[in-house]
Specification:
single chain, about 170 residues, 2 domains, about 30% helix
Length: about 170
């Protein structure tokens, strides 16, 4: 006599929320201005403006762009702003910083606009493992939105979760 095995996770009211499902499509590009500096360390305004005017900005169409300088040069803030004026209306998003900061900025906007009302009063599992680069700060931002409305909040996989929050009656 064998008993039927019941998948209690599949029949539970738990909702798994995977940030990877919300990961926006579009290439991420690190734009290094080092090559536009004299000897890799000095920004000459006239030369810099010439590089900007001659550059093909359409190659960044619908891409996410992180502006950076990999040399130890001191870059005036207007230099990044000037580049941003060229990318506005072409790139999906532009930030000054590295690719991790870019992902953080993307997720800040995504989570700020996320409608979480469907999760009100429900037990939620934030899926922890992902292949795509989900920044840790994205989970923190999402928790700030979920804690006021959910009944339970856990992290991990349905078979092995870490409790984070439980609504106190």
């Amino acid at each position: 006599m064998s008993e039927e095995i019941i998948n209690r996770v599949a029949t539970s009211k738990l909702i798994t929320l995977d940030l990877e499902d919300f990961y926006p499509s579009g290439a991420r590009v690190l734009f290094d201005i080092k090559a536009w500096l004299f000897e890799g360390i000095i920004l000459k305004e006239a030369d810099f403006r010439a590089y900007i005017n001659d550059h093909d900005w359409q190659q960044y169409d619908q891409k996410y762009v992180a502006l950076t300088c990999s040399s130890d040069a001191i870059i005036p803030s207007w230099a990044y702003l000037l580049i941003a004026t060229k990318l506005t209306g072409i790139a999906k998003k532009t930030v000054v910083g590295n690719l991790e900061l870019l992902e953080t900025a993307i997720f800040q906007e995504l989570i700020a606009n996320m409608d979480v009302s469907a999760f009100a009063g429900k037990p939620i599992i934030l899926k922890g493992c992902s292949i795509k680069p989900i920044p840790q700060s994205a989970y923190t931002l999402l928790i700030e939105k979920l804690v006021p409305i959910v009944s339970n909040l856990m992290f991990g996989e349905a078979c092995s979760t870490v409790p984070l929050y439980k609504f106190k009656k």
